[in-house]
Amino acid sequence: MITKESIDNLKNHLEIVDVVSQSLELKKSGANFKACCPFHGEDTPSFVVSPAKQIYHCFGCGAGGDSIKFVMEYEKLTYPEALEKLASMYNVTLNYDETNSKPKLDLKVLETINQYYQKLFTNNTIAKDYIKSRGISEFSIEKFEIGYAPKSIDTINYLKSNFLNLADAKDLGVIDSGQNGLYSRFIERITFPIYGLNSKIVGFGGRTITGHNAKYVNSPQTKLFNKSKLLYGYNLAKENIYKKNRIIVTEGYLDVIMLHQAGFNTAVATLGTALTKDHLPILRRGEPKVIVAYDGDNAGLNAAFKASVMLSQSEFEGGVIIFEEGKDPADMVKDGQIQKLNEIFSNPTPFINYAIDYIILKYEINDPMQKQKALHESNEYLKSLSLLYQDEYKRYIAQKLSIRENLVKVTNDKSRVKFDNSSTKIDIAELCIIKAILEKPSRLDLVLDLIDASMFEYHNNEFQMLLDDITNPSLNSIVLNERLEDYDDKRLENELLILLIKFYSKQLNKVLYEKDIDFRKKANLIRKLKDNISQLKKGKLVSFDIDLLK
Questions:
Q1: Are 458 and 426 in contact (CB under 8 A)?
Q2: Are 337 and 323 within 8 A, CB to CB?
Q3: Which residues pair with 246 in a beta bridge?
Q4: How far is C-alpha 374 from the geometric centre of its chain's CA atoms?
Q5: How far apart are CA 367 and CA 154, in angstroms?
Q6: Measured on CA atoms in the order 295, 299, 301, 302, is the torsion positive or negative?
Q7: Minimal CA–CA distance to 24: which of 233, 16, 288?
Q8: What is the pTM of this model?
Q9: Burial class for 527, CB neighbours closer than 10 Å (0-12, 13-18, 19+)
Q10: pLDDT tens-place string over residues 332-375
Q11: For the chain, is the Cβ count within 10 Å smaller at the N or the C terminus?
Q12: Alpha-carbon distance 107 to 305, whole Å?
């Protein structure tokens, strides 16, 4: 069992915006961040993350909690598994009770193997010659920690001789087991270590130099390694991405290395897969312009189209670069075409233009039936964009197809306003009072002397919940509600005065028309209530024995 002290230590290291943004696209919204909720389908963002409170809450489905709860729900992990995942992300050591303790995964296995591969590379003439033939400098070899994985038995023996845990090595994707026992995942390959967002090594990519069937292989899926959520070189590029407000997404390891070598140090690469929605949270960091730089073969053109559709629908700024004539960025750097690359990267084709061009080029538009199909597919794509883009690009489609603009149909779906048809009444003033207490619990001492839950007309349940447990996650929706004002102490006192005057005035009315009450008791209550209301109207916060009204 993980000790409470180490859990508290981990929590002190967690930053909820950082944790959530590794899985969701977060957009700034006032003091908070918003996204579409991952726990229920929605088009309008209702998922709010508060960096001040270190919590999240969805106003659509009610999901909420802290960083640990988010990882549990999103990754479908148990509480201990979520703690271990976050601890590995933030390089925090978890301690376990001696009884029934679970051994911690030794992440040093990856670091040690990486050093081993690097050392082997320096002594491997074939690997060095290949890398140098691609134009990669000694500085880049060191910067990107390029290594060489030997025969399988050599890796296994190295792990054993250095007393590294073989079970951990298997869990981390360094080795695997088959019918003939353990074998290395990377055999006679040049290795490229891959780092996560926390700049900790999570796996490897490997390129064969001895003719294996697969030219490139990656680490298998592990607790740390998910190729759909990683970008090669991001650990080295991220600071420059923030400074230059640009990220170049390429297809291969060598493209990234050579582009960095030529000064294009915002380059990254996907890991043998196309861009996916899981990559969007990483690309969103720092809100850079995204340049998708792919090869001009059919696979590259198709991948660029899919990326353009996805990125334009998510309203990313940037565009597409296609490298023709069988050349890629690495080739151009090797050939010294740095200036030409500068020009190319400065003039990408905008995502929407590229997507529309790609769609129309699939059809023979001189044929009316083919032109109709091109128009239909272009329309369908256009409908997935915002109203502004729809209006702007219907002209572009009309020009490309040589048709009248009114034939390009747009939709108003994006402008529909959703109304809450719930019959539940809310009172902003009452919720603001509850929010003020939640944000500064020390105010509860003042409030408890004056009011109880029965004084809230609409939100007595929420106030009682606050009294029972002020840390109740169900109250997160109030803390993160942007419609609610933030009260200072003076404003809170004024609102309490209003609440109390309103409550006692209603009680006075009730007593005045009450027939089944003793005359003396009634007269006494009327006098006390009127006196209280008078004091409150003078700005004096006074208490009242609420039991007298029962």
A1: yes
A2: no
A3: 289
A4: 35
A5: 63
A6: negative
A7: 16
A8: 0.65
A9: exposed
A10: 999 999 999 999 999 999 999 999 999 999 999 999 999 999 99
A11: C
A12: 38
The angle that helices 368-382 and 387-401 make with each other, rounded to 10 degrees, is 170
Question: How far apart, in whole angstroms, are the C-alpha atoms of residue 239 and residue 266?
Answer: 8
Each residue's pLDDT tens digit, 473-485:
778 888 888 778 8
Distance CA 48, CA 37 (A): 9
With CA atoms as reference, report the closest residue to 240 among 204, 267, 269, 203.
Answer: 267
Between CA 487 and CA 489 the distance in angstroms is 7
For tokens 């050392």, the residue is: 119
The model's confidence at residue 417, banded by pLDDT at 50, 70 and 90, is: very low
Pairing of strands 147-149, 189-195: antiparallel
Q: What is the DSSP letter of 8?
A: H
Tokens of 394: 């219907």
Number of residues written out for the chain? 550
- Measure the CA–CA gap between 339 and 341, rounded to whole angstroms: 5
* Residue 419 confidence (pLDDT): 32
* Residue 11: band (very low, low, confident or very high) from pLDDT cuts 50, 70, 90: confident
Placement of tokens 């969701």 in the chain: 24
% of the chain surpassing 90 pLDDT: 42
> Which residue spans within 199-285 are E strands per DSSP?
201-208, 216-218, 246-250, 267-269
**Strand order across the beta sheet in which 47-50 lies:** 27-29, 32-35, 47-50, 55-58, 64-65
